[in-house]
Amino acid sequence: LDSIKHAGAIFLGENTPEPIGDYVAGPNHTLPTGGTAKFYSPLSVEHFLKKSSIISMSKQGMKEIGGACAMIANTEGLTAHEESVRIRLRD
Q1: pTM for the whole thing?
Q2: Where do runs of H (alpha helix) occur along the chain?
């Protein structure tokens, strides 16, 4: 397994033909092809779920990383983003 870098599914052993993965073991049989396993995963139920990130920053956390965040925003030319961080750093 250590030498396998990109695969949509890995079937181990002589008793694990592809149909086992396709139909009964759980993974979806819609696998990335044509080398796309380098950057894409097999189709799964997760593709049909909506996800949301929940982010919370403490005052101490803002003091520690806010400057770096403001610098990134400035580099990207997002001045309102930069200012929203700098305002919080003043508090």
Answers
A1: 0.52
A2: 18-19, 59-75, 79-90
